[in-house]
Sequence to fold (196 residues):
Amino acid sequence: MKNLVILISGGGSNMLALARAAERDDWAGRYQARITAVISNKPDTKGLQLAQDLGLATSVVDHKAFSHAADPRAAFDAALMADIDQHQPALVLLAGFMRILTPSFVAHYQGRLINIHPSLLPAFTGLHTHQRAIDEGCQFAGATVHRVTAELDHGAILAQAVVPVMPDDTADTLAARVLTQEHLIYPKVVAQLLSR
Ligand code: GRF
Fold:
């Protein structure tokens, strides 16, 4: 079986889209793949509740618990790796996971680490992508599924989806339009990777 581990930090709508696609499109039968864990760096997120409601295994590696370590980021990543590696993942899927990962974490999952970012990369890496697209007067925005490298939001692009920016858009209305596309392209990319 190919084990899939999903990392989240909040609402979990992309995790839900992946889990529903795995069920609807029979990833277990077609690709011998299953979602074995949903891991959050924050306790009590909506995404954890959604995963538990689907009967998926969940765990929390709270980054705040490492704030007093000599190197909090490295300590957190080491604990996260230990949790993930229990599942011997074929793929680690970042889905609304809002932590910048260390180069050693990225190297450990080289070729198995995938992320979805709410902009048309390479434009608007980082945060507040929708407001920045509106502020720049962009007429189109979108989302990108990409491989994760040590350079934030810079890995090889696997898929993109484009949406129009409407004259009266706010960051929230644009985010909602982009999110609907995210929920379509992320499962499609994962299915393609699993079919290889
Ligand atoms: C999404 O736009 C995702 O691209 C970004 O965080 C947003 C929320 O994702 N990283 P989710 O609902 O938690 O999956």
